[in-house]
Amino acid sequence: MVARKGTRSPRMHPNMEHLEGRQSVLAALKARQRRFEVILVSHGAHVEKLQEVLDLAGQLGVPVRQADARELDAMAHGVTHGGILAVCSAKPRATGEQLLELVDALREPPLLLLLEGIEDARNLGFTLRSAEAMGAHAVLIKKHLWDLDSVEIARPAGGAYERLPLAQIESVEPLIQLQQRGLRLYGCIAGAKRTLYEADLKIGSILAIGGEKRGLSGAVRSICDAFLSIPTRGQGTSLSLSHAASVVMAEAMRQRWNPSV
Amino acid sequence: MVARKGTRSPRMHPNMEHLEGRQSVLAALKARQRRFEVILVSHGAHVEKLQEVLDLAGQLGVPVRQADARELDAMAHGVTHGGILAVCSAKPRATGEQLLELVDALREPPLLLLLEGIEDARNLGFTLRSAEAMGAHAVLIKKHLWDLDSVEIARPAGGAYERLPLAQIESVEPLIQLQQRGLRLYGCIAGAKRTLYEADLKIGSILAIGGEKRGLSGAVRSICDAFLSIPTRGQGTSLSLSHAASVVMAEAMRQRWNPSV
Question: I need a surface site. Which of A78, A100, A131, A171 has the fewest CB within 10 A?
Fold first, then answer.
C-alpha cells in the first residue's frame, strides 16, 4: 500500500492518522473515539489559543511534545495546522451490527444519511457538518474511506467527523436490516416524480444520495422504498452531492423540528 | 497590482481572465457575456468531446488555436483543464442600476441572494450553482470579486457563474432601493427567534447571508426587515456559508414551487 502525504507518513504505524489544527484536534479529544499517540505543538504556536486542547490532553494522559515549526510543516498535509498536529488512531467506523444497536437505542425516529460515490474528502467533510447540524444520527458510506484523506475530511467538518457515527457498509445487507426495523429507504434522484416535500421524513428514514457522476447504484435503487427529487430550476446540472444532502437533511429537520420542545 | 497565477498572466491584458475546462468554456460561450480573445486546445485533447465548444466558437467567430499541452499546463491554474483553456474578458458585473432594471423586468416576485464576507472562490462557485438551481434571479456580493480566482469560482459553479447575474455592491444603497420597490431584506443569522420556515419567501425577497467569521455586517443588519434562523441541532458550529445558502434558497423554492405550473 502506498503511503499518502498527510494521512500516513512512512514512519507511522499503518493505522495511525494525522489531525491538523486546533479545531480538529480538540473535537477528536472531546469525542474520545481515537487513541492518541502524541500531540505536537510548534515552538511558535500561540499557547493561549491552544490552552483548552492542552488541558484536555493533560486530563486524558496524552503526551504533548514541542516541535520545530519545520517538523510540523513537513509532517502536515495542509498549511492551516496553526502549529498543532496530532498523531492518533483512525476514527473508528461503526459496523453494521453497531449501527443496528445505535438505531435500537434511539428514543426518536432514526434519521440516517447514506452516501454513495463520494470522491472528494472536502465535500464529505462539509456533508458531515451539515448532516450533524440537521440531526442525522449516523452517516453510512458505501466506500472504502481510506481512499480519502482524513485531514481533508476533518477540516471542513468542524468536529462533526469526530462526533457523528460513521458506518462503512460493503453491501446493502445492513440497509435491508434497517428496513426490517421499520426504516424507510428514500432514494434521492433527479427526475423522481415525488418531491422531497411530499415525503414523510418524520418516520425513521434513510436518505440515500449518490455521487454526481453515477448517482445511486443499482443495488441501492433496487431496494429503495421510494424515490424523491429536489425541486430545482434553471439549466444547472443540479446540486453538488454535499449541497443536495444539506437540502434533503434540512427538510427532514424542518418536518421534525418542534419549537415547543 | 500583482498578477495572479491562473487569473491573469503577466502577458495578458489586465481585464482578461482564463477559463479552464470544457464545461466552463462552453457555459461562457453560451451565456455570451464575455468577449473571447482566443480558445486554446492542446494537441492531445479529445476533439470529439470538445466538438460542441468548437462549433459554437466557430459560430461566434472566436479564434481557436492548437497549443502544446505544456503551454496549457503552464498557463492553467488547475490540472483539470482537460486540454482546453479560453482567454476572455471578465464576467461582467451588474451595476446597482442594472440590478433594478432586472428586478423591474421580472414577471414573478424577485428572489435575490446577498452574500457578505465570502473568502473562498470554490465556496462561492458552489453557492452560485445552488442559487441558480433554486431559482435565484441574481446574486449580490459585497466584496471585491477580483480578490477571488475566477477559475476557482467557475469550476464548481457548473456554468452558473456565467449565467447568473452577479452584482457587486459597495454600499447598502442598492439594497434600500430594492426595499423601496417592495422587496423584503431577510438577514439569515444564527439565533434569530423566527425561523426560515415561518417567513413568507413567496414575496419579493433578498436573502442575506454572512461569512462564517464575522456574519452579516452592521450596515446590512441595520436595514434588514426581519432576521431568520435555520433550525439546527447538535454541537456543530452551524452550516458553512454555501450550505446555509443552499438550505435558505431551497426553502424559497419550496414555498414558490408549484407542480401544476
Answer: A171
